[in-house]
Each structure stands twice: as structure tokens, then as C-alpha cells.
Amino acid sequence: MPSKRTLSPIPxxxxxxxxxxxxxxxxxxxxxxxxxxxxxxKELQAKAEFEDAxxxxxxSRIPSLQRSLIDNRSLFDTxxxxxxxxxxxxxxxxxxxDFNVQGTVVVARWYGGIMLGPxxxxxxxxxxxEAISNYLHSTEQQHAKRAxxxxxxxxxKANLIRVLPxxxxxxxxLRGLLAExxxxxxxxxxxxxxxxxxKVPDYPNLPLKTLENLERARxxxxxxxxxxxxxxxxxxxxxPNLV
Length: 243
Hints:
This protein is an alpha+beta fold. Helices cover 47% and strands 17% of the residues. It has 4 helices and 6 strands. The protein has helices at 41-45, 88-99, 119-184, 208-237; strands at residues 19-20, 24-26, 29-36, 55-67, 74-81, 103-110. Strands 1, 2, 3, 4, 5 and 6 form a 6-stranded antiparallel sheet that branches. A hairpin with a 6-residue loop joins strand 4 and strand 5 (74-81). Helix 2 (88-99) runs parallel beside helix 3 (119-184) and helix 3 (119-184) runs parallel beside helix 4. Residues 1-11 and 186-195 have low confidence and may be disordered.
């Protein structure tokens, strides 16, 4: 039996995903557990795959409205259903407490005609432990994935905060060059006004999505200005009167 955890309870999970154990078979009897952090005992017991089971033992552990008077920690209400397998529901409730999770676990037993004695409780609890462990493993993987994504986003944001001012400087220089070439070519003098510096955005305080949109906009602007410079150079070469 795993030792009781001293960590805070696993936070509520509204997922309807069901976590299942492998089958344990002993002298024609078979045991399978399913666990859900959000579904009720009745919902799990009603699963079609358990319809012909001899017993559908259940236990639930949910947050209580009360808190500890000693340290104000959260308390939990536990309920269980033996479904004809005396004391089995209480054994399942202890497994939920051992793992310090909230939710519901149901173990289905198909009786094979041979009495197993006390070892049946080991099978019941081991199935439940496996189903809950599968849930915890999945949760840890999800947390690791979110942490990785967060780290990647932070790295991406830091890079954009560094790169965008460089893009702004490049645009300013290119616009100045464009204005000079258009002025030399006696083109529209309005281009000269494009060199006035714009207000620099507060990049560090902008969300990543906004920074990514700004990067695309800056790249598009640089591409456009370069195209205009190329047109101005072509115009200069095609005008023999220009110095």
C-alpha cells in the first residue's frame, strides 16, 4: 500500500475522461477498476462494460463544505457502496484517501464460482490503485507539457522583445533611404515625412500574441519599403536627366 501523501489534494478536475486498470484474474474471478475525477459513482457503475458484473463496488471522495478547526485545511466527504461485497466499499475509500485524490473509483468483479477469501480485497484495491495511478501519470504529463509550453512561450517573448526594436530601427533607416531616393528622383515629397519616429510600443508589457502580430507587421513593412526602394532605384536609372 502506498504511503499517505502529505501534499495538498489534487485540484478539482472537470474532465470526463475515465482511467481504467488492467484486468486481474484469479480462479475464474475477474476484477477491473475505473476512476474518474469528476463523474459520480452511479455514472461509473452504469457503464455498459460493467452491466453483467457480479459486483460494482464504488467509493467517492469529494471536498466537504467544512474545514479543519485546527489548521483550516480542506476536509473531504467519503461515501462508498459495497454492492454486495461486504467491506469492499470501505477498502476502496481508503485507497482514495491514500492517494489524496478526489473523485470516484469503481471496481467491477465477475464472480467465477470459487470463493477467494481475503485476497479478493487485495485484488480490489490493487485494481483501484492502478486506475488512479494512470490518472495521476496522465495529469503529471499534462502539467509537464504545460510547463514546457510556458517556458517556450517565455523564451519566444523574450526574443521578440529584443528583436522588435531592431525591426523598428531597420524600418526607420529604410524609410529614410526611401525618402532620399524619392526626393532625388523628384517623386512625391510626401515620402520624406515617413522618416519621423513613431512612438515605441511598451513591448515587455504586451502579450505574446500581440508581439507575434507586430513581428509579422514589421516584416511586411520592411518588405514593402524594400520594394519601394527598388522601384525608386529603377526610376533613377531610367531617367538620364537625374544626377
